[in-house]
Known about the structure:
Blueprint: E1 10-11, H1 16-36, H2 41-66, H3 70-76, H4 95-105, H5 108-116, H6 118-127, E2 136-137, H7 141-162, H8 173-196, H9 213-221, H10 232-258
Antiparallel strand pairs: 1-2
Amino acid sequence: VPACEMNGFSITPFRGLHLLLLLLTAAAALLIFLLLRGKPEARRARFLIGVCLFNLALFTVYKLSLSRDAVYVSAYYPNGFNLFNELPLHLCNINLFLIPIGLWKRNRSILGFAFFVAPLGALMALLFPEPLFAGFSLFLPRIFGYYVTHAILVVCGLSLATLGFYRPDPRDIPQILKTFGLLAVGAHCINLLLRLTVCPEANYFFTYGAEISVLKLFWRIIPVPLLYGLPAPLILAAYMYAVCALSRLRQGAEEVSFS
C-alpha cells in the first residue's frame, strides 16, 4: 500500500474527510457572503475575480504536477502525458474564465451559465470522483489539486447569487441554453482540431462520450459525437426551472417575514 494511503488523510466519497470537505465548501460560500454583504459592488466583483485568478493559478500548478504523477500518467496517457488534454475547457473549470468575463460584461446568459451549469459539474466531480481521485491522501498533489480547485469552483458559482451578481430568473433559461450549446459546439471544434494535431485524446465538454452513466445512456440512444448530448438541454432546463422556483419561494418567504 502506498505511504500516501496510510497516513489517515485518505479521502473516500461520503466518508469523514470527504464530508468535511463538502461542509467546508458550503461554509466558505457562507463566509464570503457574510464578509462582503453590504460592501460596494466593485469590491465584491474584484474579490470574486481575484478568487477565480487564484484558482486558475492553483489549477495550473495542479495540472503541471500531474505530468510527474506516474499513476495518473499510466492510467490516462499510455503514449505519454499531454498538457493539451488538461486545459481549463471542461464544463466546470471553464468558469475560471466565464465568471470574470460575465462580471466584466454584465452578461446575464454567461452569468446564468456560470451559476447554474458549471458549479453543478464541479459539484458532481466532488461527489462522484473517478477511481484515481478516491482512496488516496488529500496531501497527494493529484488529490489536493482536484478537490480544492473543484470546491473553489462551486464556491465561486454560488457566490454569484449570494453576492448579488445574479438572481435566478426563468426568463434567462433560453439564452443560458443557447450559451451552453455554443460552448459545446466550440469545445467540439477544439476537440476536432486537437485530435487532428497534437492531442488524440481531447474530449472537452465530453463531446466524444464519457464513462458517466447518464452520458453512456445518451450515447446508446444517439451514438454520434456531440449530437449524443441533445437530451442534456432538456434535463438542464428542468433543473434550472426548479432552482428558479425555489428561489422565488425563498424570496416570497422573505417578503412575508419583513411585511
